[in-house]
Amino acid sequence: MYDRKIDKHYCCGLEITMEIIGGKWKPTLINLINQGIMRPSDLQRAMPDASRRALNTQLNELQEHGIVEKTIYAVLPPHVEYRLSEFGTSLLPLTLAMETWGNNHRARFSDMLRIKKETVQA
């Protein structure tokens, strides 16, 4: 995780929440791991737009915050699996609510993107 030169002070719960799940792929990673997709290669296949480096970085941050637990099996080739910790499971209502909200407003968002694209092309 990035070491800050100046310590960050968390004044409200929203700042703490965003520190933990604020990342392009973190809420999706939490939901996928909850669904049973635990191996890095499976996560990569489920999220093809995310680079392997970005996924590894965000998985490491989730691990440092205690949201996911990483198990490394001593076999050749090495086998790694992630699972949600008990603490990580407490985030599920939040990430599932985010997913539900996004699905409910998908059409409106798609329309806004289409209009924006048409305006730029005109």
Please explain how this structure is put together.
The chain has helices at about 15-20, 25-35, 40-45, 50-65, 85-90, 90-105, 105-120; strands at about 70-75, 80-85. It is mainly alpha-helical. A hairpin with a 5-residue loop joins strand 1 and strand 2 (about 80-85). It has 7 helices and 2 strands; from the N terminus they run ααααββααα. The chain has a single domain (about 15-120), classed as Arc Repressor Mutant, subunit A (Orthogonal Bundle). It has a two-stranded antiparallel sheet with strand order 1-2.
Q: Summed up, what is this model?
A:
This protein has 122 residues and is mainly alpha-helical.
Helix percentage range: 55-70%
Uncertain residue segments: none
Domains, number: 1
Structural class comes to mainly alpha
- Which CATH class applies here? Mainly Alpha
Alpha-carbon distance between the two ends:
43 Å
Number of helices: 7
CATH topology: Arc Repressor Mutant, subunit A
Strand tally: 2
What is the chain-wise order of helices and strands?
HHHHEEHHH
